[in-house]
Hints:
The complex is a heterodimer.
Chain A: H1 2-15, H2 18-36, H3 42-49, H4 58-75, H5 77-83, H6 92-103, H7 107-141, H8 145-159, H9 167-181, E1 184-185, E2 192-193, H10 207-224, H11 228-232, H12 247-267, H13 274-289, H14 302-317, H15 319-325, H16 331-342, H17 351-354, H18 356-385, H19 392-411, H20 414-432, H21 438-460, H22 467-470, H23 472-503
Antiparallel strand pairs in A: 1-2
Helix pairs in contact in A: 1-18, 2-4, 2-18, 3-4, 3-16, 4-14, 4-16, 4-18, 5-6, 5-7, 6-7, 6-14, 7-12, 7-14, 7-15, 7-18, 8-21, 8-23, 9-21, 10-19, 10-20, 12-13, 12-14, 13-14, 19-20
Chain B: H1 2-17, E1 30-34, H2 41-57, E2 61-65, H3 72-80, E3 87-92, H4 98-101, E4 111-127, H5 135-144, E5 150-153, H6 159-171, E6 176-179, H7 183-191, E7 197-200, H8 206-210, E8 214-220, E9 244-252, H9 257-272, H10 274-282, E10 287-290, H11 292-314
Parallel strand pairs in B: 1-2, 1-3, 5-6, 5-7
Antiparallel strand pairs in B: 3-9, 4-7, 4-8, 4-9, 4-10
Helix pairs in contact in B: 2-9, 2-10
Amino acid sequence: MFESVQQLASGFTIATTFYNLFYCLIGAIVGTLIGVLPGIGPIAGIALLIPATFGLHPTSAIIMLAGIYYGAMYGGSTTSILLNVPGETASVITCIDGYQMAQKGRAGPALAICAIGSFIAGTIGLFGLVFLAPPLAEAALAFGPPEYFSLMVFGFIVLSNVTGTSLTKSLMMAIVGLIIGTIGLDPVTGDARFTFGSVSFLGGIEFVAVAIGLFGIAEVLTNVEKPLEMLEQRVIVPRLRELYPSLQDLKKSITPILRGTGIGFGVGLVPGPAPVIATYSSYMIERKISKHPEEFGKGAIEGVAGPESANNSASQSAFIPLFVLGIPFAPPTAILLGALLIHGVTPGPLLISQHPELFWGVIASMYIGNFILLILNLPFVPLFANILRIPKKILLPLIILFCITGQYTVNNSVFDIGIMLLFGALGFLMRKWAYEGAPLLLALVLGPRLEVAFRQSLMISHGDFGFFINRPISMVFLLATVLFLVIPLIRMTLKKQRRGEVKQ
Amino acid sequence: MMKRFFTILFVLSLIMVMPIHAVGFPTKEVQVIIPWAAGGATDLIFRALAATTGKYLGKAVVIVNRPGGGSAVGYTEGAKAKPDGYMLTSGVTPLTILPHQVTTAYTYKDFDPIINVVSDPSMFLIRADAPWKTLKEFLDFAKKNPEMITVGNSGAGGGVHLVALAFEKAAGVKFNHIPFSGGGPSVTAILGGHINAVSVSPPEGISHVQAGKLKILALFAEKRLEMFPNVLTVKEQGIDFAMGMWRGLVTPKGTPPDVIKKLHDAFKQGMDDPVFKKNAMDMAVNLSYLGPEAFGKLMAREDEFFGKLIKEIKK
């Protein structure tokens, strides 16, 4: 422990040299911009800037590239809140209450609480990274195919009703998501499924296209249907002193931020869809334990603060498997792994002992970077909030333009734009009949991974389903899932019985 | 205020949609499709090579992971790409394997060879605390318990999967093969103890062997590795078997020869760069340069070999 503190101190000496501070700042600014623009995510951003780091010292290079990664996590929520356009998986949930807050003229507090929540989560996450990295990396390895499968089942069942509307409708949407997730090549045998002979379908349906369609495009279509006078209107413009969160907002947000940080940090260690599970779980928990759950979906600040913090601390703990094991669990850390190689640093279990200056320097710079991002983001809040001064008749076509160009930059694929528009139309109809987009997106992310884990498990166990119950971690998740499904039924029966008794 | 906002928005949207017309190659970054998830051998090697090649090419080389279908997704996309030299694919052994196993939309003939970069022996890794101390103990156990030992691979029909299939035939045993979506996930699974052994090829898992977490159970090479001189090859242990992976770069058929030459020259320089050489050494990969013509011949030879082998295995 003492040794960690000492090394962290030496890390700060490295991170606070002029050059490293400079690269940290550049990374934070570029990351924020990348996060704000829909489409271009942290992966593309880092990949594009790797060549710019060729001449740098490895530590400076990683400091800058890591800055882009967590900077994008800060900025990612901006379009979700202002325009209902989720730029990446992690900011889908922020659309729900963040956009509603903006519609009520509270875009400022929503944006500011994202920055504050991210800062707190980032700070706590770093302490976790410093003191718990090696044991946590070992713990992450305990997740094999059966554990992974049970976690996915748990996430799928529990989180599909994230917004708390109709359970039946949510499960229906989740099943639609599962079906869409099967499009593409079979992950085990490599056979083409539901591609109708088209090459474009082989790689599956792009998540970002579905997300932008269901949220951004559908929102525009819903607005277009309203009477003409309404389109002349603007969103309620906030007064200056309402741009930042009130004391009451902060009070309401602090425990969701702390809970979100904890959830995000734990979930971030699981390979794959960590940002989705972390943000959905945080939202679900805040809604469940809230004293006023009816406000969720209508602009509850807790529904923004919790998930945004969860997202940020998940992106911090994603560094643990990378630094401790040399294995990237998520695409952005995979790009960073490439960046390490470029600078002659071989990632693996020996990285921390062989390159302590790099590990501790980067950790310290992440702390500084978080602070820079907070200072950088708060002044931007009024600027971004002012976008909503634009009358809707001008803003709406601009959103469509933004969505299309943003989507195109992801894969340079016109096919994906088509998918996005198709899901925009579908999302419009779903809104009419009150079906939620969030469960569909959840299932689209979890489905393919669930399938692979299920088939791997059964291959290992020679078709024995007992495998899922015999493993403790796996059993806990399955048990929790069953309880989640059964408890409401028992409650309902008890209520009915009681009512029956009263009648008698 | 609003006017300025629109100006910014307009400029931004222009930047985002600006079409780029080729005048002299390359005018924009060159993409390399890796048909596996990030963190596997091919991914690691080409990320390192992409980094050093960028400065010789004048434009960045960007790695794009397109995992799925045991590499079929990535290769299909690579084969259908425009043959303009901006969308390359990593041409690795499975390119000459998978088309013999399932119906694919491509064969190696749909690509033009650019350069071969590495050529490596395959190996089985087990956990350092595994119950088997030697290859003989492992195989004895496998003989008594057919299909009980789980052997992970980086994808059904992929190179290391076929190595495992061919090896069980040579050794007269049966394993239970578990596919993962790349070398990264399969190494994670053995580290966590979820499978008994894993079929890999360097650099996958090498850093964990150095750290003492994993050990090399069987080395399918003609000669021992420089990095681990004490590890015997399986040939030395009486099983006549050696198999490996080659990894190079290919481009869709019909790419102009001068573009191929430019790409080849830049990647060759990237290979000779001291930074890449050091990376390759640290990853324990064996650099093996081949020019377009020789690489094309290698692919044709391998395609014939695997075609025969797969027919035999399926019998």
